Here is the input.
Amino acid sequence: MNQDAMKKQAAEAALAYVEGGVVGVGTGSTVNHFIDALATIKGRIEGAVSSSEASTERLKGHGIPVLDLNSAGELSIYVDGADESNERLQLIKGGGGALTREKIVAAASRQFVCIADESKLVKVLGRFPLPVEVIPMARSYVARELVRLGGTPIWREGFVTDNGNLILDVQHLEIADPLQFEQRINNLAGVVTVGIFALRPADVLILGTPNGAKTIKAADFSG
Ligand SMILES: O=C[C@H](O)[C@H](O)[C@H](O)COP(=O)(O)O
Here is the structure.
């Protein structure tokens, strides 16, 4: 089974968590499979709140109404992919540059269901370059500060986020304490969002595997 088939398997398994109402929808290739699956039950939901222009376009293409988060209130569920997850369901996200809106919709949702293929589960976060969204005038300053924190920031040249900002991808990190590192980077002037999701981790991780979808709950972690 290839990686895309495992993403599709995880995405389809997430449908079981959708109970109607308004669904928070993330961004990326795994979420694209989820949007396609959501379209098969669109009569049972009120609509979606989207985390990116790309997901909005796909949702609308399926005839799923896209609502403004400001008028949707608290969402019961948010479904999104990840670039990495540890076993506490703390994540690295933002490979597609949608991290800021993703973090907002995740924060506004009661349950965060993360969908991924099994390769995304890691012991320690940081092998995947950590995306950091920055205000354009702060790019060099934030990059210097990230070097002081032990990383190697690379400017994602030519890429502008849906919010009009830039992305630095920080290589060579081994993030032993994701919660503390998220807060530390959030506190740098000019940082809009760091792609660590530890303050608001996922509640459920569904991994596509060659042996079927595997579900891990944050509550299962006892260490
Ligand atoms: O900005 C992008 C998002 O955080 C994605 O959820 C993440 O990059 C995973 O994407 P994919 O499902 O394509 O692996």
Observations:
- Residues 26-30, 80-83, 93-99, 102 surround ribose-5-phosphate (CB under 6 Å).
